[in-house]
Amino acid sequence: MVNARKATAWVAILCVAQATVLAGCGTTYQVETLDEQAIARANAEIAAERALAAQSGSMDADQKIALYTLVAKRVEPVAEAFCRAETDPGTNCDFALVIDRNPKASANAHQSYVGGQPRLTTTLAFLDKVKSPDELAFVLSHEAGHHIAGHLDKKKTQTALAGVGGALLGALVVMAAASSGRQVNRQTMEQLVGGGAAIGAAGGAIAYSQTYELEADTLGAYIAERAGYDPDAGSRIFARLGVEEGKKPPPGTASFWSTHPSSPERIATVDAVMAKIKAQRASGQEPVPERREE
Ligand SMILES: [Zn+2]
């Protein structure tokens, strides 16, 4: 049997554990705040892009590979220099850019690690979705952004942390029951705390990964622009990706396409970032992403 005092002790322990580990767990870079007008402008871009896409033909396999080779050659050295400038010394910035030729692989691009080296993979099916060098440059730059912002490492930690938060919720339920004079047996308590942990872990991983996509889009815009491409034009690819794609990226990877955040949010984010990049260029500065205050 658990009494109110014991349950309170549980909550206190979980609170301390969560507060200790949650510090410094958000994004490293500033992610844009979007108003309704920004989203409306993005929706107009999506409508225009869909109308255009309905008219144009698609590339054959050779053309797709040629486009990839050309763009990868331009983006890779810029992404590597950007990575070295933005990350701690000792970070592996030697990107490996590869095409996944498995015909069964769904349309997506993702970042992973192979023997500690950051790998940016694009599937053949995804190249079918790409209509311009600007789009492919933006996708590759976005993937490089996941590595530069350390998303895969952060996700691992945060899934565990959110589990602690969920367990805390379970413990609160136990405490409420106990303080209302009800007796809670050990088995019920463990189920509540454990169930809360699982829900917290799942919810936490999803919430964080959405902000990370916008952060990767932000860094992607800086890298693609520096490589000589137009990230505004590049982000139009979001207008043509269907909801059926990107639901299941390979485990242990940070992918380009997922159903959340929504396309208008991502297009509007790139629009807002591009306004900042243009302002920095206009004042004679080399554009650099804004870091969040710790
Ligand atoms: Zn991504």
Note down, in words, how this protein is organized:
By secondary structure, the protein is α+β, with helices and mostly antiparallel strands. The protein has one domain. It contains ten helices and four strands. It has a four-stranded mixed sheet. The protein is elongated and about 70 Å long. It starts with a helix and ends in a 12-residue tail after the last helix. About 6% of the residues have low confidence.
Descriptive terms for the model:
single chain; 294 residues; alpha+beta; four-stranded mixed β-sheet; 10 helices; elongated; binds zinc ion
Query: Helical proportion?
Result: 55-70%
What global shape is seen? elongated
Number of helices: 10
Radius of gyration, taken over Cα atoms and rounded to an integer in Å: 22 Å
Q: What is the average of the pLDDT values?
A: 81
Give the amount of beta strand, in percent. Answer: 5-15%
Largest sheet: 4 strands, mixed
User: What is the SS-derived class?
Assistant: alpha+beta
